[in-house]
Amino acid sequence: MISNKTNKIKAAITAVGGYIPEDFISNRDLEKMVDTNDDWITARTGIKKRRILKEKGKATSFLAANAAKDLLNKKKTDPKTIDLVIVATITPDYHGASTAPTVASEINATNAYAFDVNAACSGFLYGMSTATSYIESGRYKKILLIGADMMSSIVDYTDRSTSILFGDGAGAVLVEPSANNFGWEDEYLRSDGVGAQWLKVKSGGSLYPTSKESLDNRWHYITQDGKTVFKSAVSEMANAAEQIIKRNNLNPEEIKYLLPHQANKRIIDATAEKINLDKNKVLMNIEEYGNTTAATIPLLMYDYEKEFKEGDKLILAAFGAGLTWGAAYLTWAYN
Ligand code: UT7
């Protein structure tokens, strides 16, 4: 359990930005690519479209930089005042070089240092844990955290178990010392490497460097054991949310919204049901964007920002490759 209740400085999200590409692949488009249909995808996942970054020469850094620029423009923040840029992603522009420095340069955050966090669909939660800790310690004052993934770069569009799910996008938040004592209240984060086998890109890492064999076997694409991941996602997301709710003495009635990772509408519904949360408190945009991995939770904040009021009690929950998962409790810090 984090101990920020006794610390003087509390960290808060003070601005939100987002970027989603205009191009998309609809369920009807997918019908022409793999053996699937709109009815099945809609009923089994809740997804209708997934946004795709199609422009040649553009990658995750482009999505992330656009989300960051949107935030900086709205908040009227000088990028030179940013201390740290964190990009949560599993689709960096390059292996061997973090994407965050590219983003920092692109947005002119010339006084910042920058690095990536790789925790797949839990990347935003893990990134928030890092960013809030730096703020609480007093070491830094302005941290830009961006969840960004260009999933279309690792999706096999001949595989119907993954191509129906994933999309591209980026969401950004600014994390600063709280001015009103609202902000990051608590987090519960876990991981289990035994489950790495169930959801991964097999090649391109140090265990299976890219080779003719890896290319022939299509190991450079994301693969998953969908059923196993589904079951673990429901039980771990619900358990993490329950832990957070219980140890902060929250009633489901006083929770304003649940912001769950957007992997599958049925995972979200089952998680909400397990923690007895009313359906209208569960935020979703999966229908339009699909699963954008590290970007889902900040993109929910981007889409629903106007609904949030100072002091609103929000629960975040995520589950992803690694395996990684967790939940967090925050009080919204601004109107
Ligand atoms: O962020 C974390 C990342 N990933 C996830 O969280 C994904 C978790 N898993 C899932 O979302 C689901 O497991 C999938 C959407 C991937 C698959 O849904 P499912 O309900 O687990 O389907 P299934 O694999 O159990 O298949 C059920 C039926 C089968 O037909 P029969 O044997 O019942 O006749 C499949 O052949 O649906 C069939 N099927 C499909 N039909 C049309 C499986 N995939 C498709 C498809 N289109 N894309």
Describe the structure.
- With 335 residues, this protein is α/β, with parallel strands linked by helices.
- It has two domains: 11-177, Peroxisomal Thiolase, Chain A, domain 1 (3-Layer(aba) Sandwich); 184-283 and 303-331, Peroxisomal Thiolase, Chain A, domain 1.
- Helix content is 30%, strand content 23%.
- It contains ten helices and 13 strands.
- The protein has helices at 27-31, 38-45, 60-75, 100-106, 123-137, 212-216, 226-247, 265-274, 286-289, 296-304; strands at 11-19, 24-26, 49-51, 84-88, 113-117, 143-150, 168-177, 184-191, 199-201, 222-224, 257-260, 313-320, 324-331.
- The strands form four sheets. The protein has a five-stranded mixed β-sheet, with helices on both faces.
- Strand 12 and strand 13 form a beta hairpin.
- Oxa(dethia)-CoA binds at residues 36, 40, 44-45, 121, 160-161, 164, 199, 224, 226-227, 229-230, 233, 263-264, 267, 291, 320.
- Residues 36, 40, 44-45, 121, 160-161, 164, 199, 224, 226-227, 229-230, 233, 263-264, 267, 291, 320 line the site of oxa(dethia)-CoA (UT7).
